[in-house]
Design brief:
By secondary structure, the chain is mostly helical. 69% of the residues lie in helices and 0% in strands.
Length: 237
């Protein structure tokens, strides 16, 4: 273990909190049969993690590979924060390496906070001017987190006023069975309306609101005036 990595691990131990760890384990559903089953927390807050990521942003890709495989949630999360820092500074060759690292390790990006932190900051921008078929493949994965990566990656395109891929992937995912996907898709549809075009969002909703999961619909229409919200909520389902 090199000195930088050793110092990093030592700092995590110093920042750990058993009390916070118990709270996080409940919040992120780590119990038997829950979506985060078995995940281990040290109890390090997000601001502390960000500070640590900046301090240790020079960790090597080999060190980051060890972190992304870790059973400890905060180690995976800080790994992703470091990857984001590296990606922003990287040239095209280095960005490709970071993107490939990310795609290779999608099954380790295995909770909603890890996906939501990173997908639109690495996968989205990397694929902006490239073939996006990987997103459609991930959207049809049996793995919940890969499906969430597919739709959250498109948040980057929404922010560029290019919501086409979001709407296409939302169509693939609109019948997803998992509540976390209902929330993610509804959230992205809401962002399409907020940042790009409410008309485009409503075109999608008018075609699908009768069959969309209720949670997805509620997230999508959250910003609508009350009268319009009630229109969508009151129709027979």
């Amino acid at each position: 273990m090199n000195k930088l990595f050793k110092d990093f691990k030592s700092e995590l131990t110093q920042n750990a909190s058993k009390e916070k760890a118990l709270i996080y384990q409940r919040f992120f559903k780590t119990g038997k049969g829950e979506y985060g089953e078995g995940d281990i927390f040290l109890g390090i807050t997000v601001p502390e993690q960000k500070k640590t990521a900046k301090k240790y942003a020079d960790l090597s890709m080999k060190d980051l590979q060890d972190l992304i495989k870790s059973k400890i949630h905060e180690e995976r999360q800080i790994c992703l924060q470091i990857l984001i820092i590296k990606f922003k500074k990287a040239d095209s060759k280095q960005q490709k390496e970071i993107y490939n690292f990310y795609i290779k390790n999608t099954k380790q990006i295995n909770n909603w906070d890890l996906v939501d932190l990173s997908a639109y900051k690495i996968v989205g921008p990397y694929l902006e001017d490239k073939d996006k078929s990987i997103l459609y493949k991930l959207a049809q994965s049996s793995n919940l987190w890969e499906r969430r990566i597919s739709i959250l990656s498109t948040f980057y395109y929404i922010m560029q006023n290019k919501p086409e891929d979001t709407l296409k992937i939302a169509l693939i995912l609109k019948d997803d069975k998992h509540d976390l996907m209902h929330k993610a898709v509804g959230w992205m549809l809401r962002e399409v309306g907020k940042r790009c075009s409410e008309e485009l969002e409503e075109q999608f909703l008018k075609q699908h609101y009768k069959t969309m999961p209720r949670t997805m619909l509620r997230y999508a229409i959250e910003r609508f005036p009350e009268k319009k919200r009630q229109f969508y909520l009151a129709k027979p389902r």
